[in-house]
Specification:
The protein has 2 helices and 33 strands. The chain is mainly beta.
Length: about 550
């Protein structure tokens, strides 16, 4: 009995001492993991803090692990790390995958890390999805880094990224550098030296919150891939690439694809003539702005930049059974301030006014091998294919008449000049066509930059001698002509609504000249369309 009492007293005493130790904070919980790498020791404490320090307390060099992610010493515990602290005088030989996929880590302190001789920084912070803070020390040096791709790829909680300690002077690969940084709002990388970089592909891909990016000054002459560089940057509205020089054979596929808010782009300073895939297959796929992207910048002779001809939102669901727009496919308008060639599968028209009594504008088709000068145009994609592209270039251009009544500008447009009626492409009660803007009576118009509208002199609608304030309709009729037919006697009208009398007279061979309403004409007006001996022609 005495021994049993002593045993109970002993257990009570030990329990009492344990409680005292708990209250004094002296209990040491076991580390999650620990190990060594070269001359350094690493531990992951019970709270998830990864600490890396010299084993001797003075200086230590980490092993140069292999290129596989699993070669990193703490790979098996990466998801349990909540914080990283690197003590003073820890020297790295490689940083590839160093902190990759530490998905619970919110803070990384590299104050003590020396990277002077490191050439591989690829994937160092990749997929640290909760990371918000990175602290660099004086000896964090990336000047010898060759592989720097995907350094911040997947850091989806970072709203800002400090690049002041990122030296890219030796780098050849910056692909996916900031990809999937979906919380990143603004970044300025204009100070980076990219003169040796070959790969810029997917650099900002899926930076869906990015509203401001400064890439001015980046040297791109060594670049071979720009594919998807700004793809899915769905909040980005403006982009200036005026300092970019795109070399021969560079790949720029989907450069801005699905960047659905982008409405202003200054194109690269130089685009080599042999670049044939830049921004293919589709720059503005799924664009909801209803406008061709802004085009600017200097394009050299023979150079070109591809840009998608997309489905205009305003006509997206139109069946286009209206006989005045019966060619089919999708319709839109665009304005360009530099020459643009017409891609195959796309039909482009300019517009010229016709006889006043017809209230009619003719859309004149330009052949697909022509280069259009600066101006406004109507576009029709008969095959409804998103991958057709415009090619912007400086070369011989087709001669477009000064009477082209499609107008536009590189900035937002507000036009209300006296003596004109204004129409824009839209749908009214399900029918596509050109109509007044609501409440304007056709006397003014407001349009976004790089869209265009019809500015028709009143004399072609009201008549030369009209004294009324307005006899115009809210929409008007159209005919379709071929541009090449303007230089010939007979036109190539594709679609024409004729009255029964006009159709009958058109079959006549009596040499009498009729207008398109079937009325005999005594005096022909220059530039007007008439019918003679069953043939339609333009009076020169």
């Amino acid at each position: 009995m005495k021994k049993k009492k002593q045993s109970n007293v002993k257990r009570l005493f030990l329990a009492f001492m344990f409680l005292i130790s708990l209250s004094s904070g002296n209990v040491a919980f076991a580390d999650i993991a620990s190990g060594t790498s070269g001359d350094c020791t690493w531990t992951i404490s019970d709270d998830g803090t990864l600490t890396i320090k010299p084993t001797n307390g003075t200086s230590g060099t980490l092993d140069a692990w292999g290129t596989a992610h699993s070669d990193v010493p703490w790979f098996n515990y990466k998801e349990q790390v909540t914080k990283v602290v690197v003590n003073a005088s820890v020297i790295a030989k490689i940083c590839r995958h160093m902190f990759r996929e530490m998905s619970s880590c919110t803070e990384i302190d590299l104050s003590g890390l020396t990277t002077t001789d490191v050439t591989d920084f690829a994937y160092i912070f990749m997929d640290c999805s909760k990371l918000t803070t990175i602290k660099y020390g004086d000896n964090f040096d990336t000047s010898k880094g060759l592989e720097m791709n995907s350094m911040f790829n997947g850091c989806s909680s970072m709203t800002t990224i400090d690049v002041s300690k990122i030296n890219t002077s030796s780098a050849t690969n910056l692909g996916h550098l900031f990809a999937y940084c979906s919380s990143l709002v603004s970044i300025d990388i204009s100070s980076l030296n990219t003169s040796n970089v070959k790969y810029f592909d997917n650099m900002f891909r899926n930076c869906s919150s990015l509203t401001s990016v400064n890439v001015n000054g980046l040297k791109t002459t060594s670049g071979t891939s720009f594919e998807g560089m700004f793809k899915y940057c769905s909040s980005l509205t403006k982009l200036d690439l005026s300092s970019f020089e795109i070399p021969a054979e560079a790949n720029g596929d989907s450069l801005f694809a699905r960047s659905t808010s982008l409405d202003s782009l200054v194109t690269p300073k130089t685009i080599d003539a042999s670049v044939t895939t830049l921004v293919a297959p589709c720059v503005m796929r799924d664009c909801t702005k209803g406008t061709i992207i802004a085009i600017g910048g200097a394009i050299p002779v023979g150079g070109h930049l591809l840009i998608c001809s997309y489905k205009p939102r305003t006509i997206l669901e139109a069946t286009l059974e209206d006989p005045t727009l019966k060619v089919g496919g999708y319709w839109g308008t665009f304005y360009t301030d530099i020459p643009v060639s017409v891609p195959s599968g796309v039909t482009v028209y300019y517009a010229i006014p016709y006889e006043k009594e017809l209230d009619m504008v003719a859309f004149v088709k330009v052949s697909s091998d022509e280069v259009l000068p600066k101006g406004g145009y109507l576009i029709n994609n008969t095959e409804s294919v998103e991958q057709n592209r415009f090619v912007f270039q400086s070369s011989a251009t087709v001669e477009i008449p000064e009477t082209n009544v499609f107008k536009g500008d590189t900035t937002k447009i507000e036009d209300s000049e006296d003596g004109y009626y204004y129409y824009y492409l839209t749908k009214y009660q399900g029918t596509p066509g050109f109509f007044w803007q609501s409440g304007t009576k056709g006397k003014s118009i407001t349009m976004d930059a790089y869209k265009c509208y019809l500015k028709v002199p009143k004399k072609y609608i009201e008549g030369e001698k009209s004294s009324t304030s307005s006899s115009a309709k809210s929409d008007f009729s159209y005919i379709f002509l071929n541009h090449e037919d303007l230089t010939e006697q007979t036109t190539g009208i594709n679609s024409l609504q004729q009255t029964d009398n006009a159709a009958k007279d058109a079959r006549a061979t009596d040499g009498i000249i009729y207008d398109l309403h079937g009325r005999k004409v005594e005096t022909m007006r220059q530039g007007a369309v008439y019918i003679k001996n069953g043939k339609i022609f333009i009076n020169r």
